[in-house]
Amino acid sequence: METKYISKNGLNEWFSQIVKSGKRVYAPVEERGKVEFKKVQALSEVAEEYIQTTQSIKSAVFPRAEVLFSYEKENGQVKVEDFNPDTVKETVLWKVHPCDAAGFKPLTAIFNWDYTDKLYNAHLEKTTLVTFSCAKADKSCFCTSVNGGPGNTSGSDVLLTMLPDGGAIVEILTPKGEALVQLAASAFEDDKGEDKSKYLADVPLAFDLEEVRARLATAFDSPVWKEQSERCLGCGACAFVCPTCACFDIQEDAHGSKGKRIRCWDSCGFSLFTLHTSGHNPRAVQSQRWRQRILHKFSYMPDRLSVFGCTGCGRCSRACPVDMNILEHITSITKK
Amino acid sequence: MSEQNIYLPYLMTIDKITNEAPGVRTFKLKFQSEEEANAFNFKAGQFGEYSAFGEGESTFCIASSPTRKGYIECTFRETGKVTSGLAALEEGSTMGFRGPFGNTFPMDDWKGKSLVFIAGGIALPPMRCVIQNALDLRENFKDITIVYGAKSVNDLVYKDELKEWAERPDVNLVTTVDPGGETPDWKGEIGFVPTVVEKTAPSPENTIAIVCGPPIMIKFTFPVLEKLGFKDDQIYTTLENRMKCGVGKCGRCNVGKLYVCKDGPVFSKEQLNDIPAEEY
Amino acid sequence: MDKLREKAAALLADGTVTMVLGYEEGTNKPRPLFCHTAEQASKLVYSSQCINNLAVYLTKKEIMGAGKVAIIATIPTLRSILQLSVENQLNEDNLVVITVTDKDEVKQFANFAEIEAYIADFQLKLDGKEQEIITKLEGMSREERFKFWMEEMSHCFKCYACRAACPLCYCTKCIVEENRPQWINPWAAPLANMEWQINRAMHMAGRCTGCGACGDACPVGIPIHLLTRKMMEDLAPEFGFTPGQPSKNGNALSTWKADDKENFIR
Asked: Rounded CA gap, C237 and C241, in Å?
């Protein structure tokens, strides 16, 4: 772990060296009235004034649709072609926020629980995260209440905290981060001793996470689930924009004798998620599915995987058509 | 050695197809790769994800016993997209298999005990693996009782094996059909499985009861066992939930904080008491 | 606002209805509110910021329950209520429909015919930004327009918020959920997304009342309501049918009449 300083010019230099190295760089870009991660070639393309991107960057390691393997049938026999990790390209995720980087921890836990996921790991291995601390937050943010913070380093390879002079404090956190820094080593100067905390957004603590967990452990039959979920429409917006949601479906893309088995995003909020072929549906009403979402993230995951399934990024609340504000819902559980 | 792709199935050849009952088939499968066949091992209770290439995967238990080497079997009813795809396959065709997944029946703990197997209809397959396993190691167990029922005589599965089990002096097999499901020459019981269990009245003394069946059968069998004196840690069952990955990642089979594909499918009644019944 | 709250509270207090469906203050704009008690009615708000179409809840049995329900409807919601009535999805006797006029008066409709008469005075209008896109699209060639929508579709991730927010998407099994055969690929990819949206526009033809809830709901900002809206505008002159008119009886594409102008079916 090493801390350095980089000037505004240094940043430009480093960025262009990263692009020159052939790695794909994804960064937040403003387009169509939204800020989303997109492949960029120049620093000038990167968005400046925004709080958070609409979608997370989990698609870099968990694409919204991915080929697990392909097959070809002939005369009753089948040939399969496995996923090839060598096809994964080196990727740099530029200007993710600490809440995005923190999301990689629960994702990695799910995809490496017992059985290891070859595809996820192949993507993760070739992905480097350059995180930027948050100087601003909005009322949907609550990273500090879920073991996070605007200057948190969890999941990041390099953490930059921007300074008034256009330069940044650089925390080099992992060997991958070091390797990326080496692409323009001369652009980095010695640490100027700036105090990072002066430049971080104020995200007040909204609830006590352990208290939430304790209450949820006995809340299965509570009427709160029906009350909170009455307006929920049962779409997948919250699950899909979430940096930690990893539920997926496995589907077949069949074209005659050839085909591919595809993994694609799914959501526990959809009514069909748990439907049996017999017609029996253990979670037939939305209140049961809402309960599952909250319990899974704040109770089951910490119990089974020792990590919470929420980083406080607030995306679900912002994306929800009917304002299912998760911060509000969780806080109200602690007040009951 | 590069990481295995857990979503890539073994290629299997369908060695034999047995028509068990209307819409119900058993496939006997052999690994196409000898290396994979030799490396493969599993325990009674585990399940697999079976692929019909072009349609998708379906979850079935491994219906044969691990004591019988060189092949695995699965039994399924043609119900939906994938099972229809499987039903269209012929002997000699290739299909896929991923597994073994899930936990197992704790047969080592049951050594020296008596076993009572209670099954209904298409739920005999998940039990067949453990029944065959127990019969292959017969000396490990005291009394073995099997109570099996179906809607009608035609719907009974593993008809040949039932004959085999009936003829064994060291097995007490009681078969039943629902009232109205009997044929003129039916010699077995007539009545719903829970009623027949009560009539058979197996002793709970040093005995384990394993129950598999449609939810309605289980609902009425548990109280019968309780009445007969079985404690919750003496009763085992298997749960089913919609599954896709089979390895605890896709999130579908969550029941409370348990995953049926990882913590199950075998559960004792004691464990079931701790998880929300409405979620399965 | 007070009059609205009083009205809602009274309906609940005297047992006329078991629930009042309206709006309350949300994080950035008003959101749906379900009042089960007279006290909860004090949270009700009503303004031009109320853009969720509450009619979407009218076909959800688990929310509506068995009793009589009141709904505080904006103009777009009123149109949806009428179209749901055309499609026999509502029981007029179990629904109390209330609106707030532009003179801030609370108006309770005696029946759906009264709603139809009231709505006739309000023209469906696109806002400036929407008009800009429509004008741009109308100036494009077919190839350019396809390119525009494929670019928009590349952002879609099949969350189905558009479907979930639409009051007329009440099918218990949506076509995307049908897997024998799998008509529409369930994963997110530009062409698969386009298939879904084209399908949706077709299923909305003659039914969409232009509320814009789908476009508002889309988390990635696709102006998807313009597709169904354009379909609506194209269909009206062709079939002589405007959705949301129970007095005219039937749907443009699913009601056959002896005097239909096409003769291929005779």
From this structure: 7
**Preceding omega of B223 cis (within 30 degrees of 0):** no
- Dihedral sign of CA atoms C6, C7, C10, C15 in order: negative
In the predicted model, residues of chain C with pLDDT beneath 50 are none
- Show residues of chain B in contact with A304, CB under 8 Å: 257
| Cβ-based contacts of B84 with chain C (< 8 Å) | 180
| Environment class of B254 (CB within 10 Å of its CB; exposed 0-12, middle 13-18, buried 19+) | buried
CA distance B8 to chain A (A): 7
The secondary structure of B111-140 as a DSSP string is: TTSEEEEEEEGGGHHHHHHHHHHHHHTGGG
- Closest CA–CA distance from residue A294 to any residue of chain B (Å): 12
Task: Quickly list H helices, chain B.
Answer: 34-39, 81-87, 124-136, 159-167, 193-200, 215-228, 269-272
Q: Is A138 on the interface with C (CB under 8 A)?
A: no
CATH number of this structure's domain B107-238, picked from the four choices 3.40.50.970, 3.20.20.70, 3.40.50.80, 3.30.300.30: 3.40.50.80
Instruction: Look up residue B66 and give its two tokens.
Output: 């691990």
Give the separation between CA A39 and CA B191, rounded to whole angstroms: 68
The reply to whether residue C179 touches residue B81, judged by beta carbons under 8 angstroms, is yes
Read out DSSP for A223-292? THHHHHHTT----SHHHHH-SS---EEEEEEEETTEEEEEEEE--TTSTTTT--TTS--TT-SHHHHHHH
A99 CA: distance to closest CA in chain B (Å): 22
Of B121 and B234, the structure prediction assigns the larger pLDDT to B234
Residue type, C113: A
Confirm whether pTM is higher than 0.90.
yes
> Which subunits have 3 or more CB–CB pairs within 8 Å of chain C?
A, B
Is the interface score ipTM higher than 0.90? yes
Report the alpha-carbon distance of residue A282 to residue B241 in Å, rounded: 9
| Architecture of the domain defined by B10-101 | Beta Barrel (2.40)
Tokens for A55?
């979608």
pLDDT tens digits along B223-244: 999 999 999 999 999 998 999 9
Q: Is the peptide bond before B9 cis (omega within 30 degrees of 0)?
A: no
Chain A to chain C Cβ contacts (< 8 Å): 102
CB C71 within 8 A of CB C54: yes
Q: pLDDT tens digits, residue range C22-54?
A: 999 999 999 999 999 999 999 999 999 999 999
